[in-house]
Every structure is written in C-alpha cells, then in structure tokens.
Write a structure and sequence with these properties.
Length: 167
C-alpha cells in the first residue's frame, strides 16, 4: 500500500509541476535579449541643439528567436584601446516599457552627447573618443560602437545621457 501512495503522490506532484509550468505558445516572448544576440549600432543622423547632439542607439535582435528588452542601456565613451573616458552616461528620465523583439526587429534608445567644450577645461580635459561602450539593458556584457567625438577624459562632468529603450 505504501508503494501505491508513493506512486500516486509522485503523479500528483508531476501534474502540479506541469500545471504550474508556463505554456509555450508560438507568440509568447519571455526570454530577455542577451548582448551576444544583438547588433548594437548608431543612427548617425544626429539632431543638434544648443550644446548637445542627439543620436539613436539601435538594438537589432539577431539571436534567431524572439526576445525582450526593457530599461536603460549603459553607455560610456572609449578611446582606441577600449579604455573608458570620463564618467559613465546618466539616465535621462523616460517611461520604461518592455519591448518585444522578433528576430530581425530593432529597438531604439535616444542618446545625448553634450559638447565637451561646454565644460571647463580643468574639469573635462577634452580628448578624442573612438566610440561608445554600450551595455544593453540588464546585461553585463557590452559592445563597442565606433563614433569619433570629443569627450571628457576626467571623471566628473557627465556628458552622455540615454533614455530607456522603446520600439
């Protein structure tokens, strides 16, 4: 009789586990986009305002499956050797939404680069940046996007800011 109870208890536990498991429907997207499955690039059609230039960071899903992005990317300027220049970028307050990306689809984040010449030379120490180190939202791996621009090499002035990703 103990054997029957063990088998019955195992069957019930298995049934409960299956009932609690998420269903895999064809349209379901629950996997977070990983850096390795994204092409990170920059729309270089900048929109200049007094003292800043705005670009659009692009995150194209090339993972082979659907995934989601949500939150703020991390950004910092780098030199030709990949070393960080100055302070990391800040978050420009914006609405945070989870963006579902089919394979081949692209999400965007607005990037603002403040002209390094706006800061006092002693606080900034202006140098040429070779690009941007970009961390997709909620990822610890980064990609470098080439973009020559004038950056601050000293920590302190925050000359980069980014909005949350959007579709």
């Amino acid at each position: 009789m103990d054997l029957r109870r063990s088998i019955a208890a195992g069957a019930v536990a298995c049934g409960l586990a299956l009932a609690a498991a998420p269903s895999a429907s064809p349209g379901a997207v629950a996997v977070s986009c990983r850096t390795s499955g994204l092409v990170v690039w920059l729309d270089t059609t900048g929109n200049a305002t007094a003292g800043s230039v705005y670009y659009t960071l692009k995150f194209t899903n090339q993972s082979g499956h659907a995934c989601t992005l949500g939150g703020y990317p991390g950004v910092s300027a780098v030199d030709l050797h990949g070393r960080s220049l100055g302070s990391a970028g800040s978050r420009n307050p914006s609405s945070v939404h989870v963006v579902s990306l089919a394979n081949g689809a692209t999400a965007n984040a607005v990037l603002r680069i403040t002209v390094a010449g706006n800061f006092p030379p002693s606080a900034c120490h202006q140098v040429a940046a070779a690009g941007l180190r970009v961390y997709p939202p909620n990822q610890t791996a980064s990609k470098v996007v080439p973009l020559p621009f004038e950056a601050c090499s000293h920590a302190g002035p925050v000359y980069l800011s980014v909005k949350a990703v959007a579709s």
